[in-house]
Amino acid sequence: MSRGTLFDKVWQLHTVGTLPSGQTQLFIGLHLIHEVTSPQAFAMLRERGLPVRYPQRTVATVDHIVPTAGQERPFADAMAEQMIRALETNCAEYGIRFYNIGSGSQGIVHVIAPEQGWTQPGMTIACGDSHTSTHGAFGAIAFGIGTSQVRDVLASQTLALGKLKVRRVEMNGSLPAGVFAKDAILHIIRKLGVKGGVGYAYEFAGSTFEAMNMEERMTVCNMAIEGGARCGYVNPDATTYAYLKDRPFAPKDSDWERATSWWESLRSDPDASYDDVVVFDARQVAPTVTWGITPGQGIAVDEAVPRAEELAEEERPLAEEAYRYMDLLPGTPIAGTKVDVCFIGSCTNGRLSDLREAAKLASGRHVAPGIKAFVVPGSEAVKRQAEAEGLHEIFLAAGFEWREPGCSMCLAMNPDRLVGRQLSASSSNRNFKGRQGSATGRTLLMSPAMVAAAAIRGAVTDVRTLLEPQR
Amino acid sequence: MSKILTVEGRGIALAGNDIDTDRIIPARYLRSISFDGLGEAVFADDRTQQADHPFDAPHFQGARILVVNRNFGCGSSREHAPQALSRWGIQAIVGESFAEIFFGNCLAIGIPCLTADADTVEQLQRTIVQSPETILTIDLEALQVRLPQQSLPLALAAAPRQMFLSGHWDATGQLLANIEAIRATAARLPYMG
C-alpha cells in the first residue's frame, strides 16, 4: 500500500469517514459541471427536493455541444440549444458561477478551470467527464464521474469511493526535438496498455515531467485515463506556482504565502512508498501515432503498422478488429498514410502552447490540396491570446480554418464531424470507432505539431523532417 | 432503495475486449437533457455495421444478463452507457474486467458488474449462444452464476457487493447522513476559507 505520496495525503485530508459499504466518503473541493452530464443530475436533485450543498465550489461552462463555426443563439441544433438553456436555468436557479459563451472565459471545462485559477494543488476535483484527470497536472486529485455521482456531489459535495493504489510513472531525460508531451503519454500508454492503470492513480515523476510547463503536464495527465488510471498527477513545484500566481481565483496577498507552504507540504515525500514503479527514458520516445482503435495501439512515426504475429497473443484479436476498421495493412509504414481531415484542438491539445507549436510548423507553408484542416482554441482566453500573437493569421494564410472555442470534433457532439470513412489526423485523445462523428470515420492520434505536418503533406509525416535544421 | 440479491433471466453474449462507451452509446445520442430513448440506441453504430449483432438477434431479445470480455466500458465517463444498457433490459453484467468509471456508474444505477476468469466467461458465452433459452441466476450472496446443470464462481469486491445486498447502492442518502462530518472536513481545508 502506498504511503507518503501526494495522493495519500490529499486523500487523507479529504476523508469525511468510512461508509457502511466500506468505501471512503471523500470531500470534493471543486466540482466542475457542463451541459452534457449535468441536466439529468439536476433533475434528480429536484425530484428529491435537495439543494446544491456548496454552490460556491461549483463552476460551470458549456463546451461539448457548442458549434465552433458560429455561435449565434439560438443554436441551429435545437437539441444543443435545449442543453445550453438547461444549464443556464440550473446555474441561475442554484446560484452557480457559469462561464457562458461570450463571457470571455468560456471554453473546454479542463482548459478554463486552470486558466481561471480554480484548479489548485491539494484539491480534490470531480467533473462528469473522464478527462478531469487533466487537473492532476497541478497536484490535485481529480477524476471523472458519472451523472449519478454528479448528483451526489451537487447534493453533498462528497463521493463514495474506494482508495486507489499509486503507481509512480517516472520518465527521465529530455524529449528529443520534435517530440512532445503528447508523444510521451502515447508512448507510456502503448507500453503499459489501455487497462494497465486500472485501480491506480498515476504519479508522473522524474526529470522529464519536472521540466515540462503546466500545459504539457496537463496533456500528460489528461490522457492518464486513456491508460486506465482513474487519475494522474504531478507534484506541485515552482512551475505550478508561477502558472497560478495572479490568476483570478488563485489565492492573493498573504493567502498566497500560506497556500504555497501548504502546497509544499503535500508533495510526495522523498521516501514515499508506491504500489508500483515504472521507469521510462525520454530519449527513447519518438513522435508517436496511433494506428488502431484504442489509444494503446500506437507506434513511432517511423515504424510500420505491427503484424499480428509481432504482438502479444492477447492483443491480436483487437489488432485484427483494428486492421479491418482502419483499413491499414499490417507491415505498412504509417508515415505516408493519406489523411482527409486535420484537427487541432480538444482538452488534450487545445491550449496556447499547442497552437504555437502547430503554427510554427504551418508558418510559411500551405495545407495540401483536398485536406480539411481546422484549429479550435480550447477557450475564449486561448483564442484571444493566440490572436494577439498573430497565430490565427499564420493558420489562415496556410489554409487552416480558425474556429470558436469548444470540444469540436474530439467527440463530435456539435456539427464538426467526420463524413463516411474519412481518416483524420487528430490532436485529441480518443481514436475509438465512430468517435469523431461518423460511424465509420477513422482517427489517428498525434501531437498538434504532427497534425500540422500531416495537414501540410496531406499524409502522416515525421514532424522532424519539417523542423528547422539545428545550427 | 431496493436490495439486489439475485438477477435471473436469459443471457446475451457480446464478444470482444476493450469495448468502449462510445460504442455502447455514440456521442450523438448524448444530445438530450434526459436519458429517455437511449435503450433503442444502444450499440447503434455497431448494429448498423454488423448484421448479426447480438442486440438485434431475435433470440436475445428480453435477455437480462450481459456477458462480456475484458475491460468493458472503457473510455468516456458517460453514464448514458449503462443507462442505455439498462433501458434495453440489462440488469446485470458478467465479464473478465470492467473499466472503473463504468463500474461505478453501473453501481450507482443498480446494475451489478461481476467478474469471472476467462474460461468461465467463455463457457458462459458459449452456453448462451448455443442455448439462448437457458435461464441464468446471478447470486450476489453466494457469488456465483447458476445454470441448470452447474454453478460457476463470480467475483465482486466487498464494498459494492454489500451495497447491493443492503439496498444502499444509491449513495446520496448515505452521504447526506454525515452532514456534520462533511462540514468538519470542509472546515479543515485551507482553500475552503
UniProtKB/TrEMBL annotation, chain A:
Cofactor note: Binds 1 [4Fe-4S] cluster per subunit.
Entry cofactors: [4Fe-4S] cluster
Listed CDD domains: IPMI (cd01583)
One Pfam family it belongs to: Aconitase
Source domain of life: Bacteria
Subunit structure as annotated in this protein's UniProt entry: Heterodimer of LeuC and LeuD.
Similarity comment: family membership: Belongs to the aconitase/IPM isomerase family. LeuC type 1 subfamily.
Protein name: 3-isopropylmalate dehydratase large subunit
Organism: Gloeobacter kilaueensis (strain ATCC BAA-2537 / CCAP 1431/1 / ULC 316 / JS1)
Species classification: Bacteria, Bacillati, Cyanobacteriota, Cyanophyceae, Gloeobacterales
Automatic annotation (TrEMBL), chain B:
Xref: Pfam families: Aconitase_C
Any GO BP annotation: L-leucine biosynthetic process
UniProt cross-references to SUPFAM superfamilies, sorted A to Z: LeuD/IlvD-like (SSF52016)
Reaction it catalyzes: (2R,3S)-3-isopropylmalate = (2S)-2-isopropylmalate
Domain Aconitase A/isopropylmalate dehydratase small subunit swivel stretches: 3-112
Coiled coil spans: none
Keywords: Amino-acid biosynthesis, Branched-chain amino acid biosynthesis, Isomerase, Leucine biosynthesis, Lyase
Pathway in which the depicted protein is active: Amino-acid biosynthesis; L-leucine biosynthesis; L-leucine from 3-methyl-2-oxobutanoate: step 2/4
GO MF terms, alphabetically ordered: 3-isopropylmalate dehydratase activity; isomerase activity
Enzyme Commission code(s) on record: 4.2.1.33
Enzyme class label: lyase
Family: Belongs to the LeuD family. LeuD type 1 subfamily.
Annotated function: Catalyzes the isomerization between 2-isopropylmalate and 3-isopropylmalate, via the formation of 2-isopropylmaleate.
Subunit and partners: Heterodimer of LeuC and LeuD.
NCBIfam families in alphabetical order: PRK01641.1
Protein name as catalogued: 3-isopropylmalate dehydratase
Lineage, uppermost ranks: Bacteria, Bacillati, Cyanobacteriota, Cyanophyceae, Gloeobacterales
Primary gene name: leuD
